[in-house]
Specification:
This protein has 538 residues and is an alpha/beta fold. The chain contains 17 helices and 10 strands. It has helices at 2-18, 21-31, 37-42, 48-60, 62-72, 79-119, 191-195, 202-223, 243-260, 269-275, 341-351, 360-368, 393-410, 420-453, 468-479, 492-495, 499-511; strands at residues 160-165, 171-177, 182-188, 233-239, 264-268, 309-314, 319-326, 329-335, 457-461, 486-488. Strands 3-2-1-4-5 form a 5-stranded mixed sheet, with helices on both faces. α5 (62-72) runs antiparallel to α6, α10 (269-275) crosses α17 and α11 crosses α12 (360-368). The longest helix is centred in the first third of the chain and has 41 residues, at 79-119. It is globular and about 65 Å long. The protein starts with a helix and ends in a 27-residue tail after the last helix.
């Protein structure tokens, strides 16, 4: 009796191992001891030696185990039991064949993915080289065939667009007129929510967007003294960004566009940043901002930029140099190989124990004012690579090692415990080298753009463009050239994510006759600019 129970237990254990529990349970029950003595006589256990062999074959090969089941069946005296064992073995073999096929396909897919990634090692990220399923090209393959898929407002007179932004951690909405005047805007910050976590938590950000989206949109409309019926079109960010956050804003924009029959534009987040440089500066202020003044160093942005121009896009998620040829037509001539400039600022802020709820950039910039930018020796990335790409992963490591060395010298456990002077020196040295890296790469790109395309205008956009030191240094880079460049930078509040950028990008799309279908509009975590058009033909 004990022998029969042991064999039954072995088979049940093997069933769990093969993940084919149901058919093996049937076979186990055929061997298990039961109260009826007559039935037990017809369902005896095989010899112990056979049982051990079966168990060993389970450990070595499931297919061999199936064969052992068939060989074991000849010892059975009951025809029904023999039939059951053979059916179970056949069914198990079929299941294993299916599993084997799936495993082979998965391995092949993983191998194919690795091989594709190998091709792009050492190349800038977020650049279309044919590897992306979705790319942004509203003007088609040549960048000129725009379609009005959901209608257009009357572009012969001023029209108003509601813009919605929810790509990351702030919920923004704005009403902007087609001449660039911001009529009303509202922004719900999530700084307090993410402060304790040291960075954006996607799930918390999504929940906050859901709680704020209706209020933010309504607030923007109220500040513009408008109702939703008065809006002529709706634009909403659909990528790139955090997918679950993008979906909140996209769903709201789709709902309003479909309910009120408004033209709809799916806005590309990076294009929206770039196009902010094209708004005439006198249009920046609305009635609610009348007490604010644009600093003198921003008066250069007193008119819209004309294509083509060069753009430096620096933010928490992106670091790119682009040749801007027209709406939807951008050629990336330099990008980051690993981390973005904004991310490097965030990591440095966390390393030094600075508050990062409002972003690590402003915290590091403020601390750096008290430090010596040449006190800590740090390497300038990619010094021997003669292209326009960026890399900040190595610099982040160098900053950490420098801070840890100071900890040893000062006798403290972590960089957070360093004296204020030391932390300020680390921050200033990091910022100096990070911006020197930008100057070198951007200078090379400007040389090429001026020589090959006659470009002489630079737009600096994205969240990091709000950094005063970066603005000062890039302004000097433009003025020091043999033929000085014009540099345009949006006011700091319009460099970061907000609703006006989505509204203005929608205006630009509508002015060239481009709109999208609201129903079924998807969002994209990754959404690179298409490289299908040939910029030499523009």
């Amino acid at each position: 009796m004990m022998l029969k129970m042991t064999i039954s237990a072995l088979i049940l254990s093997a069933a769990r191992w093969t993940r084919s529990t149901t058919p093996l349970m049937v076979h186990a029950l055929a061997w298990a001891p039961v109260p009826s003595r007559n039935i037990v006589q017809h369902h005896y256990a095989p010899p112990l030696q056979t049982s051990i062999k079966v168990t060993q074959r389970f450990a070595s090969s499931t297919r061999r185990w199936n064969s052992s089941l068939r060989s074991t069946s000849v010892h059975e005296s009951n025809d029904n039991t023999t039939t059951t064992i053979e059916v179970v073995a056949a069914a198990t073999t079929t299941n294993l064949d299916v599993e084997t096929t799936k495993t082979k396909k998965k391995k092949k897919s993983l191998k194919s993915g690795r091989e594709k990634r190998k091709k792009f090692i050492g190349m800038a990220k977020a650049v279309d080289r044919g590897q992306w399923q979705h790319t942004y090209s509203p003007g088609g393959t040549d960048g000129m065939k725009f379609e009005s898929k959901s209608g257009l407002p009357d572009t012969g007179k001023p029209f108003c667009v509601l813009g919605i932004e929810s790509s990351c951690d702030d919920t923004g909405a704005a009403i902007i007129r087609s001449d660039g005047t911001i009529l009303g805007e509202s922004l719900a910050s999530q700084n307090d929510i993410h402060e304790q976590w040291g960075g954006v938590v996607p799930g918390l950000a999504k929940t906050a967007h859901e709680e704020n989206i209706d209020r933010v949109v309504q607030s923007a409309l109220q500040k513009a003294n408008m109702e939703i019926e008065d809006v002529d079109a709706i634009g909403v960010t659909v990528g790139p960004g955090l997918e679950i956050c993008l979906r909140v804003g996209c769903n709201k924009g789709r709902e309003l566009a479909m309910k009120y029959g408004k033209p709809f534009v799916g806005v590309h987040h990076l294009e929206a940043h770039i196009l902010m440089a094209r708004i005439p500066s006198e249009k920046y202020l609305n009635n609610n901002d009348s007490e604010q003044q644009i600093p003198n160093n921003e008066q250069s942005a007193n008119r819209a930029m004309e294509f083509p121009f060069l753009a430096l896009l620096v933010s928490g998620g992106h670091c790119q140099i682009l040749k801007c040829l027209g709406i939807g037509k951008y050629t990336i001539i330099g990008g980051t190989l690993d981390d973005s400039l904004g991310e490097a600022f965030d990591k440095t802020a966390r390393l030094l124990g600075l508050p990062v709820g409002g972003g690590g950039g402003p915290a590091v910039e403020k601390l750096a004012l008290d430090g010596d930018p040449k006190s800590v020796t740090l390497p300038i990335p990619l010094r021997h690579r003669k292209d326009c790409d960026f890399s900040y992963a190595g610099l982040k490591t160098a900053v950490r090692l420098a801070a840890e060395k100071l900890c040893v010298e000062r006798g403290v456990a972590t960089p957070e415990e360093l004296p204020h002077e030391d932390k300020a020196n680390v921050a200033a040295s990091f910022q100096h080298v990070a911006f020197r890296h930008v100057e070198i790469r951007l200078g090379r790109a400007m040389e090429s753009a001026a020589k090959e395309d006659g470009i002489g205008t630079l737009a600096v956009v994205g969240g990091v463009a709000a950094n005063t030191e970066l603005r000062r240094r890039l302004d000097g880079l433009c003025k020091e050239r043999e033929e000085p460049w014009e540099m345009l930078v949006p006011p700091p509040r319009l460099c970061t994510d907000q609703g006006a950028m989505s509204a203005w990008a929608a205006v630009e799309r509508l002015m060239v006759g481009s709109s999208d279908v609201a129903e079924g509009q998807e969002v994209f975590a990754r959404y690179p600019f298409s490289s299908s058009h040939d910029d030499d033909k523009s």
